[in-house]
Amino acid sequence: MATKIYVPRDTTSLALGADEVAAAIQAEAAKREANIELVRNGSRGLFWLEPMVEVETTNGRVAYGPVELKDIPALFDSGLLEGSDRHPKALGKPEELPYLQKQQRLTFARAGIIDPVSLDDYKAHNGFKGLRKSLDLSAQAIVDEVKTSGLRGRGGAAFPTGIKWQTVLDCEAEQKYIVCNADEGDSGTFADRLVMEADPLMLIEGMTIAGLAVGATQGYIYLREEYPVAHQILNEAIDNAYKANHLGKNILGSGKHFELEVRLGAAAYICGEETSLLESLEGKRGLVRAKPPLPAIVGLFGQPTVVNNVLSFAALPFIMSQGGQAYADYGMGRSRGTLPFQLAGNIKQGGLVELAFGATLRELVEGFGGGTLSRRPMHAIQIGGPLGAYLSERLWDTPLDYEAFAAIGAGLGHGGVVVFDDSVDMTEQARFSMEFCVAESCGKCTPCRIGSTRGVEVIDRIRAGSNVATNLELLNELCETMIDGSLCAMGSMTPIPVQSALKHFPEDIPADTTSTHNAEVC
Amino acid sequence: MNHTPSWDSKAVLEVINDLKHKPGALLPILHGIQDSQGYIPPAAVPQIAEALQQTAAEIHGVISFYHHFRTNPPGRQVVQICRAEACQAVGSRQLEAHAKEQLGIDYHGTTPDQEITLEPVYCLGNCACGPSVRVDDHIIGRVTPEKFDALVEELTTQAVEVM
After folding, report:
1. Which of A48, A100, A186, A295 falls 20 to 30 Å from A255 in CA-CA distance?
2. ipTM of the assembly?
3. Under an 8 A CB cutoff, do A48 and B84 touch?
């Protein structure tokens, strides 16, 4: 019988040479006349070990990593095909790696284990149980189950998913839509990408359940253009789901329909904002719409529309198969369930860490991350993407839940955690936040469009040591205008990284070189 | 260099006719054209407008809104460097400076031999293994300045082989 060997095909594994490793393993096996079956799985999210190769043995799977091309002959020599632990890159059973053992994987339970586009593999690992159950339920019963779960939107705004769905269900309309926001533009985030590349059928199942829950028959996944690998894998998975009648007309003979299509964005961060995303899907400039009306009532093409993040949809198969209460049993306070955190930036052990709410930021970056990649002291952490706060060490003991973070003027957003070492200049980071807003503002409202440009200029003056106190005051006033006067989160949240960088890292603000007092000192 | 870019109007028309019936067809059409031609020829805008019963100004407005769409032909290879925070934390600012100096161009520029166009990108989702670079649909992680030079070398040598 052929020995099964797994080599991941997600973006990060490919970026670290997984295709070359897969080809070399096949060539080496052919040379040795070894009978192998190569499976291209997704990553388990332990990115510092990628490409992580796994071999199936009678005693379960055994992992090796990070595998480089030059390791391959020696790996075969030391018993790769038998799952031997003789090679220095042998990691033992992947599920026993502490990084994985310490997690609570609900959404990412299958990531890295299955062939992402195989329906058989997906079903063998509890796939489509939630859909089967939902096909027998009334729309209201599905919505009620989601309410019980306490699931809150995972895109960043944390709005209760069940309530949003109830609104759409209660609307009368000829056509309703399910839209998946897969425009994961936040730096430091890759959880959506990993769902789409490692377990895309879970997203497809979740969106179909949403369609059944609100009476929508058409779904769109709005995927960012910067994710070509996810695009490829999603389309393969959708094709396979159609072929097996898990999408399309009369799903599994239920008499219910759901069509699904991937639409590509075109490199515009603002299109991650739901109304801008809808404009873009309609074929327009991605200008933010004023709310109300809510997209739930007047959404895509003017129709009632559920817009949810990838992770929100991805939580549904679990909720529907295990029950809303089983999901709600994880977490703390009003933050129920788990949140996949993403460890990124200058971190030794970067990757995906799915945890119930409530662990502290320090436990996450030190316990899982293992310190910085550069070995220099950890200095600043930005959490929640480019609109998230920069936190200094005294704030790292904050528990990871929505309310605790709100209390320190920060947010969890989409769970992205970017670590910086002590070589970072926080005024440069503050400048970048404004610069990013200049590049990505949709331009509809003035505080965002002009405010960001002025923000870059003021920060440049501060960095040059010019009238620092006055310019800091001016910057704060500008930030307040952006917070109060912007139409959406782009303008109103850009001040968060700017102000937190300056507030929590005052030592990086240069001394004033323009006042006479300082001039004398110099 | 003074050259009039050529484009295949028949191929463009095919894309338009294939996709114009989709709801919200404009972005899929623009992607289709850019995928086949490398850019959106400005002379194709009236055709798109007519097919969608919109004005040329509306089409132009959409093209210019999105960073991805270009209205002139790029170099033979488009190299994107991630500028976002996670990559900054592991040295992307130094990588950007190095790349610009090595290629002798700024962002959005093309090398005089028309080989490489350099573009910024805000996040490729490879944030645990940056700095990240994208060439076509390939994403490359942990790109040091040395690795970047080797990549450019590889990209430009391929061209010689093709010719």
Report:
1. A295
2. 0.95
3. no
